[in-house]
Amino acid sequence: MDLKEKLEALDAVVNALAHPARRQILLTVHFRGGSMRAGDIAGRFAHAWPTTTRHIRALEQAGLLRSEKRGRSRTYHLQKDTLDLLKEWLRWFDQEPWSKSNLNPEGEMNANVETNPQ
Q: What's the whole-model pTM score?
């Protein structure tokens, strides 16, 4: 994945996680073993079915959930590896902001700085 694709994927994850209901859906799926049927997810929330499916679709489009259809049932699986994009971005805050190796003379991030701080 090139830098532009990585940033677009990160934006999708952050946007999906911006809504509290979506964060709750992810936590629920995680604590229920990483997979849940659509009806079981919907049953845990007071939203109408169309609202729940919109939230699930947003999580799916961000790559945080993957669906599997069997007959009339759809099961959603948590995609934890997608959260690595967010973890990677948050690691920037483990670095000192004034590190000369990270900034150019104008105080902007150097173009040659690795995108995977560790």
A: 0.78
